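Dear H.,

Thanks for agreeing to be a second pair of eyes. The structure we're designing against is below in token form, covering all 243 positions.
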């Protein structure tokens, strides 16, 4: 199979998608890979099925364009050595992976998009609960930086254009909402990139799979890297949610 390259029309479509995403306030001006990656032949039917369209969702989810997803970010069960208990969610910020720890030294691994410079964080908390097709409320500081978000100050309705996507898992520290989320995205090229305002983003198909398998109250550990900040945030942020 020849390497897959993006046509001029595809390039323009990709550029339009990035402009729309920037306008929605959930990316940055930092460089993001928009060219399709080279895929080793062939892509297995199992992977194609794993990232197929989900037409029966409340808002039908399109299939993932696998040209934009590196093979290492495919969802897969892998050996994983950790002292954390099964059920724990671990975010490897250095490698853009999220692990859901399982029994017998294994974990389910997902490719992730993470916080860009100045928005990284690390620490321990727990998954308080999850929501299907949640409302997104941008923090007031984000609205101040991006006035086009003023229309969503009281919340953006759910849907494919909502920055939280198909599912959101809400990260708490004790009884306090940290305002960080694990949430869905349809922007395939952002997986493996530092693009968010601190949240952990997974493809819609992956975040649905994770939400179906993570129990409320499960520990989440975000591993420290040289640039990450502590998990704690200003409690005055209230119910606003970064993306």
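And this is the sequence the design step returned. I haven't edited it by hand at all.
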């Amino acid at each position: 199979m020849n390497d897959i390259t993006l046509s001029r029309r595809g390039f323009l479509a990709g550029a339009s998608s990035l402009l729309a995403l920037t306008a929605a306030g959930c990316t940055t001006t930092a460089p993001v890979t928009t060219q399709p990656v080279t895929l080793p032949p062939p892509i297995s039917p199992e992977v194609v099925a794993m990232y197929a369209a989900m037409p029966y969702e409340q808002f039908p989810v399109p299939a993932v364009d696998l040209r934009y997803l590196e093979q290492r970010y495919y969802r897969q069960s892998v050996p994983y050595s950790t002292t954390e208990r099964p059920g724990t969610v671990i975010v490897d910020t250095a490698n853009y992976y999220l692990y859901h720890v399982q029994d017998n030294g294994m974990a389910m691994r997902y490719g992730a998009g993470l916080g860009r410079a100045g928005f990284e964080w690390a620490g321990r908390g727990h998954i308080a609960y999850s929501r299907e097709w949640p409302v997104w409320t941008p923090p007031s500081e984000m609205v101040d930086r991006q006035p086009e978000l003023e229309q969503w100050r009281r919340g953006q309705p759910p849907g494919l254009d909502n920055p939280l996507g198909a599912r959101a898992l809400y990260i708490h520290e004790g009884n306090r909402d940290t305002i960080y989320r694990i949430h869905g995205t349809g922007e395939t090229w952002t997986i493996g990139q530092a693009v968010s305002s601190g949240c952990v983003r997974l493809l819609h198909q992956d975040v649905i799979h994770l939400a179906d398998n993570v129990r409320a109250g499960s520990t989440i550990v975000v591993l420290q890297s040289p640039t990450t900040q502590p998990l704690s945030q200003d409690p005055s942020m209230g119910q606003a949610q970064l993306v």
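Two observations from my side: Residues 58 and 67 are 26 Å apart (CA to CA). The chain has one domain: 8-237.

Warmly,
E.
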